[in-house]
Amino acid sequence: MGVDAAVSESKTAARVVEATVVEELPSLVYRLELGNKAQVLAHGAGSAPQRSGAEKSAARNWVRLLPGDRVEVEFAEHDPTRGRIVRKLS
């Protein structure tokens, strides 16, 4: 198995679950509560502290999340305590 195959496998190995926003923390990080009452940290997809070029236009379209909002969060296999917010659920 080559390096490219390992990279593509790791990208598809993420799991997506629903969560509720509990608290907004500095640097666009959020504390979320999963369905099993576990709390995890997550950041918005593409929300880096320093942005340049095309990332600036993506940052303008960031939707503000408030406590109580439901979101879909993606977790990588290697760290189940930190995730990435994929989208806001209505």
Task: Write a short abstract of this structure.
The protein is of the alpha+beta class and 90 residues long. It contains 2 helices and 5 strands. The chain has one domain (12-49, 58-88): Nucleic acid-binding proteins (OB fold (Dihydrolipoamide Acetyltransferase, E2P)).
Describe the structure.
There is one protein chain. The protein is α+β, with helices and mostly antiparallel strands. The chain has one domain (12-49, 58-88): Beta Barrel (OB fold (Dihydrolipoamide Acetyltransferase, E2P)). 19% of the residues lie in helices and 40% in strands. It is built from two helices and five strands. Strands 1-2-3-5-4 form a five-stranded mixed barrel. Mean pLDDT is 78; it is low at 1-10.
Descriptive keywords:
90 residues; alpha+beta; OB fold (Dihydrolipoamide Acetyltransferase, E2P); five-stranded mixed β-barrel; 40% strand
Number of strands: 5
- Uncertain runs are 1-10
At the fourth level of CATH, the homologous superfamily is Nucleic acid-binding proteins
CA-based gyration radius: 14 Å
Tell me the domain tally: 1
Spatial separation of the terminal alpha carbons? 41 Å
Q: Give the strand order of the largest sheet, numbering strands 1, 2, ... along the chain.
A: 1-2-3-5-4
Instruction: Spell the H/E element sequence.
Output: HEEEHEE
Main beta-sheet annotation = 5 strands, mixed, barrel
Mean pLDDT: 78
Task: Please tally the helical runs, counting DSSP H or I stretches of 4 or more residues.
Answer: 2
Beta-strand proportion: 35-45%
